[in-house]
Design a protein that fits this description.
Blueprint lengths: L1 E3 L5 E12 L3 E2 L6 E9 L8 E8 L1 H9 L5 E14 L6 E8 L2 E6 L1 H7 L1
Parallel strand pairs: 5-7
Antiparallel strand pairs: 1-2, 2-4, 2-6, 3-4, 4-5, 6-7, 6-8
Length: about 120
């Protein structure tokens, strides 16, 4: 589900499973905590999931760095954009969808998500 905000930056809301969780870091200039993670969104009728890189800022970043584990089922809402990068093999460019999490919540922790499957 994607929508437009007043400043014309597209926002999205996804539900999916946490794939990887990066290291919690702190910005040098303002000391804001930042956590990056990946979320796989399964889409009916698609063989492979849609992958998103999600960035969480502030005190929530520290909390989720401790609480989250791979496989947790989460909800993410925020602005989304696409970034391109050169492929490692040097053949063209790849792209990734990035969401800056304005809202983020754990629906089921890993143990609960596995039991519900």
């Amino acid at each position: 589900m994607t929508s437009e905000t007043n400043n014309a930056q597209p926002t999205t809301e996804i539900f999916g499973n946490v794939g990887s969780i990066g290291q919690l870091r702190t910005t040098k200039t303002k000391g804001v905590q930042v956590l990056n993670l990946t979320v796989a969104q399964n889409v009916e009728g698609q063989e492979n999931p849609n992958w998103y890189e999600v960035t969480i800022f502030g005190p929530r970043a520290a909390r989720y760095a401790q609480e989250l584990s791979k496989g947790a089922f989460v909800r993410v809402q925020g602005p989304v954009h696409t970034e391109t990068y050169p492929r490692k093999n040097g053949e063209g460019e790849g792209s990734k969808r990035v969401i800056i999490a304005r809202q983020f919540g754990v629906i089921r922790a890993k143990k609960e998500a596995a039991a519900a499957s």
